[in-house]
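Note to self: keep these together.
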Amino acid sequence: MKIHILGICGTFMGGLARILIESGHKVSGSDQNFYPPMSDQLNELGIQLEKGYEASKLPEADLYVIGNALSRGNECVEEILNKKLPFKSGPEMLGEIINDRFVIAVSGTHGKTTTSFMISKIFQSVGKDIGFLIGGISPNFEFSAKLGTDEVFVVEADEYDSAFFDKRSKFIHYHPDILLINNLEFDHADIFRDVEDIKKQFTNLLNIMRDDAKVIRFSISPGIDTDPINPHIDDIIGRYHYPNLKKVNIGLREFYFGWNDEYEDHLAENENLIIFDPESHGLFIGRETGKEVKLNSLPFYGPHNMENATAAIVAAVTYGINFTDAYHGLSDFEGVRRRLEKKYSSNGITIIEDFAHHPTAIKFAINSVHKKYKNKRILNVIELGSNTMSSGYHSMELLDIDEHYDSFFREHGKIFWLDHSYGLEDDTYHRFQSHDELNKAIAENYKDFDVILIMTNRDSTKIIEPLKELIEAS
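Structure:
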């Protein structure tokens, strides 16, 4: 089949293009702009690319796959609709391809990309040629998508909508056999009114899953009297009443009262009790192995990455991978680009980049870097890049971060905010409204710091490249 993809240079659609070609289809694509590394990968695949969306450039095809960045008014979209040409969304197309696979879907507000790559790395380490489509880049993988020959397919299950003509979340099309819900908070203010809107999408997903499917979530295990750490997830699970759906709960040891006695009694009654200890970073899975592994011996840092690793190992074990093999599968995991990635180090200054797009993700990044680089002077640069943060929805949470870390770090840290759209209060300290203003402030202060942590989900090179030039010239 000849398939033309509109919006092909995005991570998801570019990955889908690779999978379609590996499935035997002939693929072409168009986009407004083409940037590496995706543009390089598309060229390597021999895909004919058209820049722009003029109707005259729309090629003949058996099917058109329309990206969710496009909408009515786009010339190619109007041409397809006016001529009644066949079209689908990207997630629907992917769902059809993986319909006969064993799908492991990774969802939640934070950690989807990293956890998806961790799961894929574990399966890769035990010799399985799995398929996957993940919205990022990891040094452990040549590409971010692959059809694979094994039954398993790992997909980053995004809650964002599928297309302008299909406002359901992308993950509704994937029909997972194992669904991992890492966490859940409000995000994507451009399409969701509140967290209840997001929870409805998750409820819809659970309602169409197979009755023998499994859902993995961080939770307090049954029988322990304490508050849930993921109330939104608990609420979603509570709305689902089919008894055969298996819930795989990852408990946190710090929440267990009467640890020595009550925990031991509870363990005796639950063969597959899963416990993660945030203090020791130990992971224990029931009596099946009788072993506890230490996640902080793995080659990455940050409490959130310990939880990501826990979720990945549990997902692999839930499928059937040996616990110890799953753990060792992450021993050479090299992380994900733009997730606590060390971008540069010279003249005593280290630049780290993180994709933080939400107040919680910002806290994760700052806490992780400050723990790793103890007693170092750290400049935290935060761009309000997401639609939700730039809209002002999280302004109070961001203000709390500013006030907390300003008092906590004092001489050892500082926060610079890049706020294009007035998402913060006008009197927020060190608030800048353009890259020029921000970069000027960085130039005047960078020598006072050992580490510069840049947090943005937009184009980080606008901050990093001028900074590197300053460091190299000093």
